[in-house]
Amino acid sequence: MSSNQIISPVHVEKLVFSGKGLARAEDGRAIMISGGVIPGQTVSVRVLKTRKGHIEAQVLEVLEHSPLEQPLPAHFQVYGGCKWLPIRYEDQLRIKDEQVKECFSGLASRGLVSPEVWHPIVASPEIYGYRNKLEFSFGKYISAKEEIHDDFRFGFHKQGEFDRIIDCDFCVLASDSVNEIFLEVNKHARASGIPTYDPKTAKGTWRHLVVRESKSTGKKMLVYSLNTKDPNFDRAIFDTVWQALALRDDIVTQVLFHNSGLADIVTGEAEILHGSGIIQENLLGRTFEIRPKSFFQTNTVGAEVLYSTVLNLVKSSGGTLLDLYAGTGTIGILLASHFDQVYSVEIVADSSADASVNAWLNKVSNFEAVQVPVEKFLKDFIDRGNQADTLIIDPPRDGMHPSAPPNILAFWAREIIYVSCNPSTLVRDLDVFLADGKYRLTDVVPVDMFPHTHHIETVARLELVTK
Ligand SMILES: C[S@@+](CC[C@H](N)C(=O)[O-])C[C@H]1O[C@@H](n2cnc3c(N)ncnc32)[C@H](O)[C@@H]1O
To answer: Quick check: is 337 in a domain?
Structure first.
């Protein structure tokens, strides 16, 4: 089988954790299909790469629909960020639950996962309009093959293509007012005559728009990421755009990132256009400040469910709590009253600064925000002879740095709660904690924070067995 070869028909058996579909080629090899297929569909695919044990392919066409698919209302569009939209929500939950269990099967086969650890998957309280942060891209869509030449597009990247943007009219994951703002920015940006950024030539200006929304107050922050170094950029015209948006009562602050970097990310020197450059969110009775670059869980009511799950799993109290990969300090602040001292460890300066302010806002005084990589913090903490009693670990998708788990074992902490957005790295890290029998896995709770995507959170609790 060679690259670009078309295979058809192919029956999608199931989804694996990365969101790819799994099918079988005639020779029995696995075909991993990207591009957003649904189990039960019959599709045609194009081979991308042939690997030793499997084939990587991209879906071309859906030949037969799956019984899992439901008809969508006319204004619902499926974009890269909501590929599971056609799957009934109960089925999404079942698939995610099965995927988490499958990731744990290796540990289970070694007797490390007793059946009682499993809790039923927790659903997101809201399944539409739940996101409090949306990132939209500006760009072009130029394709001779498709006979399209459009210099101004505003929406989302075409699946797997860095230089083509698909227009968006309505995003089901955004609230109605964010959809409204999106259309307003679109209107003004198009009328401005300022060109979109072209990643191939590094020319043009409009790059990204991030909208952050406080779900508790409805207030919003707009963050523009623009290549202001482009010689044709007209600052006076851009000023009329953000000033028009500032007339809305719900937009309380706007920030401009001067972004001339080559990477397709929202970054650059920040200039506050109006307001304080900060919005506040209320969650489980606490107030949290969020700056443009701070990490904050993107589903506010889902985060309440996730954090409540964590709070319910913490059985110990007193002594020192380490909140590792702490973001804006949310979990440490919610748990602070149960402990003598909390260290909130986070690498990103904006988030860590927010954690300090958030502790102060919530009158939490036994709290120290430390801006340093977790792996470095752990080593220094141990070298200084410190001890930790309870640990919260909530790393990004790649899991912990390999040097971190062995240092954590040196603490003899009585309890570890691991919150993960990637069950495969969760299981990899748990394996280190469980290997020598020092810890026992007592609970695993899958929590769905991201309806209509393949993403899933999992909370696991470990208990110290011996000392
Ligand atoms: C999944 S988020 C969790 C944040 C927080 N616990 C919450 O619920 O909002 C992971 C956080 O880890 C931070 N991070 C990534 N690598 C890190 C490292 N090596 N050391 C410390 N923090 C890190 C990220 O900036 C991000 O804020």
So the answer is: yes
Q: Is 95 part of any domain?
A: no
Give the structural domain span for 42: 6-64
Is residue 334 domain-shared with residue 459, that is, in the same domain?
Answer: yes
User: How close is the Cα of 426 to the center of ligand 1, in Å?
Assistant: 14
In whole angstroms, give the CA distance from residue 417 to residue 332: 12
pLDDT (tens digit per residue) in 386-439: 999 999 999 999 999 999 999 999 889 999 999 999 999 999 999 999 998 999
Residue 44's Cβ-side half-sphere holds a number of Cα atoms within 13 Å equal to 7
Three-state secondary-structure class, residue 197:
coil
Same domain, 178 and 194: yes
Cβ–ligand 1 distance for 325 under 6 Å, the answer yes
pLDDT, position 162: 78
Residue 98 CA to ligand 1 centre (angstroms): 26
Q: Is the CB of 354 under 6 A from ligand 1?
A: no
Ligand 1 near 373 CB (within 6 A): yes
Which parts of the chain sit beneath pLDDT 70? 467
Instruction: Say how far residue 251 (Cα) sits from the centre of its chain.
Output: 24
Q: Which of 283, 308, 331 is the last residue of a domain?
A: 283
pTM of the model: 0.92
Indicate whether 414 belongs to any domain. yes
